[in-house]
Every structure is written in C-alpha cells, then in structure tokens.
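Person: At home tonight, work slowly through the protein below, taking as long as you need, and write a paragraph about the fold.
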Amino acid sequence: MTDSTPPPATGTADPAPPPSETPVERDADQFLGRSRLGDRSVHDHMVRGSIWAIGWRWAARAIGLVSTIILARLLTPADFGLVAMAMVIVGFIEIFGYTGMALALIRITHPTRAHYDTAWTLQVITGTVLAGVMILSAPFAAIYFKDPRVAPLIYFLSLRAFFEGFENIGVVAFRANLDFSKDFRFGIYKKILTFVVCITLAVLMRNYWALAIAIVFSRFASTCLSYLMHPFRPRFSLVKTRDIFSFSMWTLATQIGEYLSAKIDEFVVGGLSGTIAMGDYAVASDVAAAPTIELVVPMTRGLFPVYSQFADDRERLRDAYLGVLSIAAILCFSAATGVAVVSHDLVVVVLGAKWLSASPLIVWLALGSAAMALADGVFAIFSVTGNPAVASRAVALRLLALIPGVTLAGRYWGSNGVAAARAIIYIAMLPSLFLLLKIVLPITGRDILARLWRPFVGAVLMAGAVHTFLFFAPALPALRLAIAVPLGAAVFAFVDLALWQLSGRPTGAEETAATYLAGLRRRASRR
C-alpha cells in the first residue's frame, strides 16, 4: 500500500465502483472474500474475527490482572487511589473524543483517502483540545479530591490524550477488512510493552508515578506501533468532516452515559473518603470485574459482526442472543458468586493482608459486575438493530438512578455503601432492560427466565456449600482457597446440569457442555 492510498475498508459494495477509486479500493470486496467466496464464507470469516477479538480482550485482561496483582504487592492503596482519582477526571474528559470516527470509516461505502485523512485530522484536533481541557481542569480536580498531588498527575496524564490523537488511522483497516489477527497483534504488543515498563518502574520507583508513567507510555507505544504496523501515512485534511460526524453523535451520547455509569461510584468515593479508600475501591473493582465483565463483555461485543448478519432476520437474531445469554448467565452467576464467597481469602492470598479492607467491597462489586455484564448483551442488540436512541435512553435512566443512589450511600455508609448501592441499582435495572428487548426482538419473559433460573439456583447452592466449608475449615487462607474454588465449581456444575436434565434438556449452554462431556467419555472409553 503506497503513501497516497487509503487502507481498504469494508462496507456495502456498490454495483459498480466509482471511477475515482484506486486499484486497492476497487478490489476491497475481493480482499474480503465476498466476490469469490460467497456470503457463507464471509459469515465464517466474521466468526473467526470475533474469536480473535474475544481472544485479544481476554489476553489483555489476563496481562492486566497479573499486573494489578504484582503492583498491589509493590505499591500501597494510597498510590493506587491517587492515580485512580486523576484517571476518573482524565477518563471522563477523554470520553468526549470517543465519537466513533473509526466506526464511521468502517460503515462508509468505499471510503477514500480524504475520509481517512479527515478522520485523522479530527482525531488530532480532538486529542489536543482534550489535553488542554485536562490541564485546565486539574486545579479544580485537586480541590474536589482534597489532595494537591492530583493536579500534577493530571497535567502529566494529559499527554495520553495528546498522543492518542496522532495514532495512525490506517489501523482501522485491520477491523474494516476483518483482519482481526493483525488487530490482535497490535493490541497485545502494546500491552506486553506496557506491562514490562510498568513493573520495572514500580520496582525502581515504588510510588504512584510508576503507574502514571506507565499509563502515558501505553498510549505513546500504541501510537508508535500504529505507524510500524500499517504503511498508511495520514495527511491533514477536513474535506469529509460532514461524512465522518454524521454517524458519530449517538455513539458519543451512549459512550458518555456508559462511562458515567461505570465511574460515578469511584468519583463519589474519591471525593468523600480519600486516597486509601479510593485505592481499595479501585483495586477491588478490578479484581471483582475480572471473572465476569472481562469474560462476558468481550464475548458479546466480539460477536457483534455475527449478530449483524441476522439484523434483518429477527427470529435468528433472537435465537443467537438467547444462546449467548445462556452462556453469559452461567459465567456471571458462577464467577460472581464464587468471588463474593471467597473474597476474604482471595484478598489475603492474591493481594496481601494490607488490602483486607477491600474484601467487603469485592462482594458487592462482583455482584454488580455480573449484572453489568448481562446488561451489555442487551445494548449490543440495540446497536445491531439500529436502535442507538433506545440504548442511550436506557443508559440515561440507569445514570439517573445511580447518581443520587451512590451519593447518598457514600455519605451515610462510606465506600461499602457505594459498592452496595451500585450493585443493587444494576441488578434492579436488569428486568427493565430485558423488557426493552421486546421493542426490537420477538422475545418473551419466559424465554429469558428459561436461560437464567438454572444458573441462579446453581449459584445459590454453590454459595451455601462453599460458605459451609469455610465455616468449618482451618484458618489457612491458601489451603481454604485451594479447596473452596474446585468445590464451588463442582457444586455449580452438578446442580445446573441436574436441573437441565430435569427440565427436559432444553436448548442452551448446558446442551453444548453435555455434548462435549459425552465426547470426552467416548474418547476415554476408546483409549
């Protein structure tokens, strides 16, 4: 690909390409395999791409979790809390840059070089402006959090938005062409680099600046890698501004609402409780979310291209969603309940005794994360069916409940109250989200309950069994954890599969698991 040629991108192909297209653009559909392989192969290609996307998120999350565990041993809760305070402000301001320009390029039919150049130019302008806004907001953030150290942290972290603005827009072609293997490598390379730098800095510096430098380095490394991994070289242009922004407004509104919903609790804790409580809360949230949000959300979002294939066939889309919901329910109920029950021993063994105050937070945050992960699948359906306005209103309604709920809970019961209020509100909002699905899918409450009740009962009985064991077990956290985890998994699996059998073996994740186990038994008997 030459310097003057835009990266090929997918979209709905026109019957005849415009005369102004370059040869690379003209062959875009052939590059995707559509003209030679047919729709079925495209669908298979999308499934493989989804697997790459899911694999990237899980690999990145595994690296991030290992990093958190190591850093928790090297740094203090106050260090984590101070950086978390600064990142709440930085992250909120950065949200205003998430206008969906990459998605706009993917959706535009036959994007030209001018589209890519315009998107990159807007990206540079946005990153520079946001960095300036962060610098201006830093003194006010220090006043709100009652810690003057927050201001210089935000000054430094503003470099993240600045570097992000200059990232090579050509890497969008990895997703546009469904080349998720390159997208995977692009993401994993920067994650590994950041991991090495972050741990090295933490060992050498032993303070919060190690975290801050690693955060900025991650974005700097991403920008450098984007030019190494894709030959496209953008130029300054604003010719196609209207085309780019015509797609972005609903995306921005939903992103702002989702970010505020996810971070309003940390904003309240940081303002009311100080750096130590904020550090406990941030790390507890990270650990609690790992087995639910980081397992389920990549799956639901990674399958977005597959959902898109069924957008015009609501019956098949409903079946696909219910299949994913069945898997998500098993993962969410089992993982969240398991983490909540063993939270005390988990903190002692994994993070260390200095983080014990995070243990009760993990209980509530794990349950809230499970509800959030189940809700994410609903929002994916709203997007794929062309109903972003419904998604935005649902996010706004949840935010209107969260703001007063977590604020009042924080004032009266501290960070534990905030975590509890967040979990209760997320769980309470789930039924209304499922009801909204009726707007876009031919689905009933019975369909949804059929996928949820067996994992729910399994999780309750698992919690009872593990809690009983821990009550009588000796006070040896590592030994208790080593026994409690497989015990809980065995109880959950047995109850869920038994209820599935008693229910007449309906379609769902249990059917897939039973088929897999039967195959293992057959192979074992042959041996």
User: Anything to note?
Assistant: Residues 37-246 form one domain. Confidence is low (pLDDT under 50) at residues 1-43.
